[in-house]
Amino acid sequence: MKLCVFDFDSTLMDGETIDFLAGELGLKEKVAEITEMAMRGELDFFESLITRVKLLEGLEVEKVDKICKNLPFMPGAKETIDELKKMGYKVVVFSGGFRNATTHAKKVLGLDADFSNILHSKNGKLTGLVGGDMMFDFSKGDMLRRLQELLGIKKDDTIAVGDGANDRSMFAFAKTKIAFCAKDILKKEANVIIEKKDLKEVLNYI
């Protein structure tokens, strides 16, 4: 068995989920600026996540789900996942974003599992609180290591694909470390760099 782990925002999906959600409240630019700083490694990921989600307080869950079901997937996402599965890979997504988006993506793209965070809501509206699997800088690496142990998969049989600072931790547990249209901080730790916005390029390095 082999394993391929994708980041979601700006990797499997073309954009940042939280920026799309913030747009509903007229806060896209403010949230996007914080997101960008976090992805460049200039802010602690946990603190930036808490700050950004707090700004979503009051947004209706119905709107959240509608937005998350209409996010644009990265060119080549479905084709790449299909090919990886034909090659015997388990394909999962790790996201510092939200289950509302990744669970839908799992169904549409045919992923084997999704690990992400949960937006807390009450009376049909977001409370501005968040919890889940992927809230810290180290979360993706920690989850990848545990998943490898659970499935009996070695580092040599693992691929990790991401674009931002919080993807660095999973590179430590993958032989093939792919920086996809990535920030410089991640490129420094990659052994494959892809600049073309087409996930099918990943298949050239497997």
What does it look like?
The chain has 206 residues and is an alpha/beta fold. It has one domain: HAD superfamily/HAD-like (Rossmann fold, 3-Layer(aba) Sandwich). The chain is 38% helix and 23% strand. It contains nine helices and seven strands; from the N terminus they run E-H-H-H-H-H-E-H-E-E-H-E-H-E-H-E. The protein has helices spanning 17-23, 28-39, 45-54, 61-68, 77-86, 99-109, 139-151, 168-171, 184-187, and strands at 2-7, 89-98, 113-122, 125-132, 158-162, 176-180, 192-194. It has a seven-stranded mixed sheet, sandwiched between helices. Strand 5, helix 8 (168-171) and strand 6 form a beta-alpha-beta unit. Helix 1 (17-23) runs antiparallel to helix 2 (28-39), helix 2 runs antiparallel to helix 3 (45-54) and helix 4 runs parallel beside helix 6. The radius of gyration is 16 Å and the shape is globular.
What kind of sheet is the major sheet? 7 strands, mixed
Give me the number of helical elements: 9
What is the CATH architecture assignment?
A: 3-Layer(aba) Sandwich
The SS-based structural class is alpha/beta
CATH fourth-tier homologous superfamily: HAD superfamily/HAD-like
Low-confidence stretches: none
Kindly report the spatial arrangement of strands forming the biggest sheet: 4-3-2-1-5-6-7
